[in-house]
């Protein structure tokens, strides 16, 4: 398969690049390195075609899309905070950029586009676990942008003759996630602090829960969604199908790190969703998706990677 990964220097993007290469696919990456990290691609630069540029640059995008069969669209502005301070830019990249990626793909005869959606479209879930038919009530411009992109891609895909699949990622974690990044998730932040013997801050009671999914499971879902004959027009959750509280997360990290730390309890954060958990039944039925790496094993792998990573 000849594949393009937009945002291929991102956390999930570079794992997807590695997964494609591991099975022998030809891979092109487009990334402007605004949030992606160039060194993530260093080990495979001689095995990929790298186009440095933005998906909003029509010349760079045209070069990247030419000759590919499948587009994995991972590129986005991922910051909820930035979406609140500059919603226009978030809309331009996440919505406008997605439209341009699809239109360029259609112009080059690409057959399928797989889109990195987000559980942010659900907002505060009406019930748990969240299913794809639940009301979508995003609480940030970022969530709005991901929801709008979903609709644009499916509608335009039908009109332009491109199969589209939207994968709504829940809380993805794993090796390679930058704990110092503005977009750092709770797993690498907690794990780094525990390894240093520091006390992580848990906002609220610690009973906030999330559906944490290891990045290898997300890569597997993307590869399934790109298979010939996989459904088109599909939107499905990609998650573990279970949830852990922040206190349970910290305990698991402490077990993996071989040390015990007590958290600092901070005030609840405004706008935080209390609980999040996905129903992954549709992904199982439509794609054959099954999380193969458990939460505990994923945490152990992540802690091992952070332990070995150079410390700044």
Descriptive account of the structure:
With 312 residues, the protein is an alpha/beta fold. The protein folds into two domains: 2-171 and 214-238, 3-Layer(aba) Sandwich (Rossmann fold), CATH 3.40.50.720; 175-211 and 242-277 and 292-308, UDP-galactose 4-epimerase, domain 1, CATH 3.90.25.10. Helices cover 39% and strands 18% of the residues. It has helices spanning 11-22, 58-65, 80-85, 87-107, 141-160, 186-195, 215-225, 246-257, 281-287, 295-308, and strands spanning 2-6, 26-31, 48-52, 70-73, 112-118, 163-169, 171-173, 201-203, 209-210, 212-214, 234-238, 244-245, 264-266. The strands form four sheets. The protein has a seven-stranded parallel beta sheet with strand order 3-2-1-4-5-6-11, sandwiched between helices. Strands 7-10 form a two-stranded parallel sheet. α1 links the parallel β1 and β2. It is globular and about 55 Å long.
Question: How can the largest sheet be summarized?
Answer: 7 strands, parallel
Return the structural class. Answer: alpha/beta
Order of helices and strands: EHEEHEHHEHEEHEEEHEEHEHH
CATH topology of the largest domain: Rossmann fold
Helix content: 25-40%
Shape: globular
Number of domains: 2
CATH homology superfamily name of the largest domain:
NAD(P)-binding Rossmann-like Domain
